[in-house]
Design a protein that fits this description.
Elements lengths: L2 H25 L4 H8 L8 E8 L3 E2 L5 E2 L2 E5 L2 E3 L1 E9 L7 E5 L23 E3 L4 E2 L9 E9 L2 E6 L11 E7 L4
Parallel strand pairs: 1-6, 5-12, 9-10
Antiparallel strand pairs: 1-4, 2-3, 6-10, 7-8, 7-11, 11-12
This protein binds copper (II) ion.
The site of copper (II) ion has 7 residues, from loops.
Length: 181
Amino acid sequence: MSRATVRLAVAAVVVLTVLSLGVAGALGGGSPAATALAACRPPSTRGSVVRVTLVDEGRMMMGGWLHGASLSERPARVPTGWVTFVATNLGTVPHELVVLPLRSGAAGRRTVGANGRIDESSGLGEASRTCGAGVGGGLAPGSRGWVSVRLAPGRYELVCDVPGHYASGMFASLTVASRSL
Ligand SMILES: [Cu+2]
């Protein structure tokens, strides 16, 4: 084989491996993808732990709406201080988690811009690094990301700000109570 052919063969093997991981992920438990997710967790956590689950049914709608998309968290109430958010993407496309103060009203009421995103300039923390801490290029399907944030008593909104996802329902609220909770 020529050198170029060898390179092509290597590329084909890599593509096939990625494809088979994707299929295994769709089939669920015990698969290489499930094993990879199990290994993908923060080495340590600080303060309360809030587990955030990001899901979608994988169908993009006109205008970027994502069918069946949602963001849920457990617990929805923690004491003041450090909170480690561990976000798991069980969907089919990349997602992220952004923590924002919620000064009044209910979650899900922010203005969505023409770019399909909200104003996240008041963001306090973000988990968007696949299998890592802090800001990255988005949480790949079947992965986790995490971030630790020190939160004062009050209400917060947890959102996914990938274009179109907030409008599709990817938000939840979190209450931080005084330490005497
Ligand atoms: Cu999302």
